[in-house]
Amino acid sequence: MKSNVALFSFLILISASFVAHSEISGEIPINPDDSLLDTKTDPCENFYQYSCGGWLAKTEIPADKPNWERGFTDIAERNKKVLKQILESFASGKRDTQNPYSKQLGDFYASCVNEDNLDKGSLKTLQLGLSRIDSITKNSLPSWLAWAHLRGVNPFFSFVPNQDLKKPENVIAEIGQAGMGLPAKDYYFDDSEQGKAVRQKYLGYISNLLSFSGMSKADSEKNATKILELETKLAKKALAPVDFRQPENLYHVLDLATLKKTAPAFDWDKYLKALTSNKIASVNIQAPVYLQEVNELLKATPLSDLKIYFKFHLINASAKGLSNRFYSEYFDFYAKTFYGLKEMSARWKRCADASDEMMGFALGRSFVNQTFAGASKDIARDMIERIEKAQGAVIEGVSWMDEKTKMEAKEKLARLVNQIGYPDNWRKYDGVQIKKGSYLSNRYELIAFNSKYELSKIGKPLNRVDWTMSPSVVNAYYEPLMNKMVFPAGILQPPFFSESYSAAANYGGIGMVMGHEISHGYDDQGRQFNGLGAMFNWWTEDSLKGFNKQASCLSKQYESYPTAGGGHVDGSLTLGEDIGDQGGLKSAYLAWKGTLKKEIIEDSAALRNEEKKFFQSFAQAWCGKDTDAFEQTRVKTDPHPPNRYRVNGALSNFSEFGKAFQCKENSRMAPKNRCVVW
What is the side-by-side strand order in the sheet with 157-163? Predict the structure, then answer.
């Protein structure tokens, strides 16, 4: 159980993006790479196609992937091979003398790759869980729900730690919406033929999972309808993805007595006693109306129907730890329907992913020793410091912000903390009991261990150096409540970054990512938090009007971009990422120019050639293909726009790009009227 990083951290990509370029070629990308260009395309009309057209023409999405990206997901596949070597070594009995958790990692991986035991050990674990549900009484329901929440099964709601938005030094409990099997609330109410088809598939999926647990076909179908009806009632009161863009929508702190009055049908004392030993003094309710609906459903729904609902969510949450009969159903519904995958990934890949997900800070110890050595950390830190300085210049240069607000913005920048590569103090996994028998039991053990670790933070002093993302993950994030950026070793790899790359390649690649994360401190969400991480309005009225005007322009720009299936980008949902891309590109560019030698700057032809390398390095790190199904799901649920718009959208608003490629005014990449926030 993780804290709600997804709500108040801003990831540079979505976690579902994972591909395998290196699996095919085995090569480490150079950046920029002229062989990827489509020279028949005018860079002033479509720079993404110009930079990536050659790559797009020769690239196919593997059958087991929802998309294929040259940047993030190419690195992820290389990293996964490193993890495989480490885990197979541990599973065979070898040990890393610098990693005290080699045995636990090896045993967990071994239990995962042993498919022969999934129909025995893991199925037995599931049956024990289902029997536990059969034994639920009205009196024991809260205790069972605590047991489930600790193991990543979240019917009705989630319960996690998070910082108090207005008092970020305080770690409090937070109740969020959960227990709905479709990706977002709109899927429950979409009356198009496609929407109806998705719900029909969902009914079949629920029915099949229930029948696998021993229920008759007739009962499975009848109960599937009941479950969908219950989830639809929850969805009516749930927040939509775009609602999470405004932090004040999610802030409703109550003391325990008020929580009990808000949802009196549930025995909170019994639930909390079974969940954690930490004293819970106050709770933030993300969506009070949603919790009130949970309360009504707990009162009105027969216990027998609640048990069926619980059973489905237990099986659904456990599917990754079960045999292919269960996992194939899970894959066919989620991966094929919403991501367009055709085949499952190899077993070892799923097991490497699971090991990193469950014990990432144990596995990371061995990973960084193999992948993040030399001067990488020093180079990355120097780049970040230069880009932070450039961000200060960007703030100073905006015309729509007054001096008082600029001063506050620069103070926030001065307080920014960044972490690079891996934690200074590694997380401990002492006491974890991993056995080579039931893989599902091992998953429950680790999920519960991690849940207890997170819940133990409630009511204690804030740990500002704690990481929420393992070192091998190809990602980066900014946390407004910490005013902190994190760049794991996993992303500090080619084509984003290399010790051997030119400054243009590194700043166009990882430099833009660094600037992107800094800019999140000043996007539509991040701007609502001050330098200490508190939700606080530090903007004057005039500056806020100026920001909103520019942001509205950017939102409308992205809403004009068409997507697969006849849709368009949701400019309100993607606004934060669009601001991050635009601001990140600008600050990375300014920082990079500060590294150039005087003779380059004074030679216009030489400077233009270097600028082209910078912009091509940026674009080519984002070359990617999505299945239509994946893009359609992404548009509805994800705050990141498709990669082609991340490139063309940001560059078309940056006048220096047009100058470098000598674009005519009002060409697509050099419009007369630009939407510039930062």
Answer: 157-163, 171-177, 282-285, 253-255
Amino acid at residue number 534: A
Work out the number of other CB atoms within 10 angstroms of the CB of residue 85. Answer: 13
Nearest of 329, 83, 94, 321 to residue 206 by alpha carbon: 329
Same domain, 214 and 165: yes
**517 has catalytic annotation:** yes
DSSP designation for 670: B
In a domain, 474, yes or no: no
pTM: 0.89
Polymer length in residues for the chain: 678
Catalytic site includes residue 581: yes
Range of the domain at 246: 114-339
Of 38, 388, 479, 517, catalytic: 517
CA dihedral 30, 639, 42, 668 (to 10 degrees): -150
Strand order in the sheet with 477-479: 417-421, 484-488, 477-479
**How many angstroms separate the CA atoms of 332 and 340, rounded?**
10
The confidence band for 27, taking pLDDT boundaries of 50, 70 and 90, is low
CATH number at residue 207: 1.10.1380.10
Cis peptide before 29 (omega within 30 of 0): no
Q: What is the 3-state secondary structure (H, E, C) of 99-131?
A: CCCHHHHHHHHHHHHCHHHHHHHHHHHHHHHHH
- Point out the catalytic residue in the list 33, 69, 174, 581: 581
What is the token pair recorded at 677? 């926030």
Residue 347 belongs to a domain: no
Place 12 in a pLDDT band, splitting at 50, 70 and 90. very low
Q: Using DSSP, state whether 417 is helix, strand or coil.
A: strand
Residue 61 sits in a domain whose CATH number is 3.40.390.10
- Name residue 580's amino acid: G
In this predicted structure, the answer to whether residue 13 has a pLDDT above a threshold of 70 is: no
Do the beta carbons of residue 156 and residue 179 sit within 8 Å? yes
Mean pLDDT over residues 511-531, rounded?
96
Q: Is pLDDT of 3 > 50?
A: no
SS3 351: helix
Q: Is 460 inside a domain boundary? A: no
Same domain, yes or no: 78 and 121? no
